[in-house]
Specification:
The structure is a single chain. This protein has 172 residues and is mainly beta. The protein is 0% helix and 33% strand. An 8-stranded parallel sheet has the order 1-4-7-12-15-18-21-24, with no helix packed on it. It has a 7-stranded parallel sheet with strand order 2-5-10-13-16-19-22, with no helix packed on it. A 5-stranded parallel sheet has the order 14-17-20-23-25, with no helix packed on it.
């Protein structure tokens, strides 16, 4: 754990991990073995989960955690929100470039690769072996099928099948 890193209460960190300088890991997060988290990344911040009312905007409680499984690498300046009603999970051998945002209650499968500036909204299910190239935007409450590839600057607003390559906004 390098200088300037913040590790919250009841965080579990596995064997052979590297937490670079100025990483923040909020309470109750779990990191598996052989995890690398680069500088400036924030793991487990509250979800962007609000309800607008006539007089005010009400923030809802984020009660879940972030669970990062074995052999995951998270680039610099990434943000992974904790779940609202469940956990946000990054599964084994997945690799994130810099500037990745993962929303609450999202599952990212095994062996996924996310290039710079990927944005994934909450309650999304990304199956195994998915590749999201730079600046891909993923809407909430959908599924990306196993082995799907989204080329750079694409955006999806509905679930997509695995084993195909997509491009555009909306991606086809």
């Amino acid at each position: 754990i390098q200088p300037g890193a913040f590790i919250g209460n009841k965080v579990k960190i596995g064997k052979n991990c590297i937490i670079h300088a100025n990483v923040s890991i909020y309470d109750h997060c779990i990191l598996g073995d052989n995890v690398i988290i680069h500088s400036g990344t924030v793991i487990g911040a509250d979800a962007f989960y609000f309800q607008k009312r006539a007089e005010e905007t009400v923030k809802f409680e984020s009660c879940g955690r972030v669970v990062i499984k074995d052999h995951v690498e998270i680039g610099a300046n990434c943000t992974i929100d904790k779940g609202v009603s469940g956990d946000t999970v990054i599964d084994e051998y997945t690799k994130f470039d810099n500037h990745i945002q993962i929303g609450h209650d999202t599952y990212i499968g095994k062996r996924c690769l996310f290039a710079s500036a990927v944005l994934v909204a909450g309650v999304t299910h990304v199956e195994d072996d998915v590749i999201l190239w730079g600046q891909v935007a993923v809407n909430k409450d959908l599924t990306i099928g196993k082995g799907a590839i989204l080329l750079g600057t694409s955006a999806i607003d509905k679930s997509i099948e695995g084993g195909k390559t997509y491009f555009g906004a909306p991606a086809v």
